[in-house]
Amino acid sequence: xxxxxxPETGASKENILDILENFAKKxxxxxxxxxxxxxxxxxxxxxxxxxxxxxxxxxNIGTHTSNEYASGLQYLEAEVISMLSNLFGLEKGDxxxxxxxxxxxxxxxxxxxxxxxxxxxxxxxxxxxxxxYSIEKAADLLNINKVVDVPCDTEYGMDGEKLKExxxxxxxxxxxxxLIALTLGYSGTGTVDxxxxxxxxxxxxxxxxxxxxxxxxxxxxxxxxxxxVSEKILDFRYSSLQSISLDMHKTGLVPHNAGVFLCRKGLQxxxxxxxxxxxxxxxxxxxxxxxxxxxAGCWSIIMLLGKSGFKKIVESELNLKKYFIEASMAxxxxxxxxxxxxxxxxxxxxxxxxxxxxxxxxxxEKRFGLKPCWLLxxxxxxxxxxxxxxxxxxxxxxxxxxxxxxWYKK
Length: 410
Fold this sequence. Notes:
- There is one protein chain.
- The chain is of the alpha/beta class.
- 35% of the residues lie in helices and 18% in strands.
- It has a 7-stranded mixed sheet with strand order 1-7-6-5-4-2-3, sandwiched between helices.
- The radius of gyration is 23 Å and the shape is globular.
- It starts with 12 loop residues before the first helix and ends in a 7-residue tail after the last helix.
């Protein structure tokens, strides 16, 4: 692919807009991009709110939940953090808007590493084989050399008993500080880590073994799904949980990039740096300079939808998931499907038994944007496909998917 050199002279506005228009015409709406897309069409209000503030070109550097002089877009960002902290069971939290889940995950582990280093001793990062790749990226950046996978249980979440065994073994090797990366909605399965079980293990071991832990939760996918349809608490009301990363540019209906980092009050002090030339005099974020206008988009959607509006969207997505499962059973020409999912997450992984080479034909994969990945099921590795049931997915698209499989006979 050849790119242009830096131009010697400028082009006309008309010429530039014509070129951009040609690019725009080639862009496909989410409804045409396939079944495994983690974002969706943004709400018109979010676009309007962001556009209103773009001409001011403001920078929201710093954390504004602790900024008593926050005003304008700083205030709106602080209110977004406050509302989302409340959603996750935290009366008063800190945090900021990020570039996405990866930044939030790195920030959480950065804080955790620095906090645990003050305890002295050896540090280990615990995760599962399903954990998002950004956690390993964080380990690399933070020079965390010991990373251990805790096996998953039969529900495809971190196994509490295996966590016990893993910590005991590592403790015998001299490790006394544990960063634990949990997930609320794994990208490949939609399953969740049982924070209630893990919290009990941690509290028991911190008392008996005098270990120190920092628990971070990657809720980039499930953060704006799970809380609206599940009565089971998986949030800051568990004392071991210190920070959460989530994305409003997924089910939050806000344009990219609208990630969110949440943590308990004061934890960002562990990554704080003095910046004398700033009004705040300090910065305790990873990104530093950040586009302020996105705060208006996030604030507008939360205010517009409220809990009831988000609940309605999520219930619609879960009904589509149910429709897909029922459709797979209604098609007599297909062999049985194997499903992996969580009842409160809008993701479904499926494997079609006895499919040739365990894969769909290339045309079907391309048309519906599906790519298989290996998952362990009943002690055997099998190829699974993953569908994300977002607002742009319809029953019509699901029907078209099953119609494309009619070439297959039992």
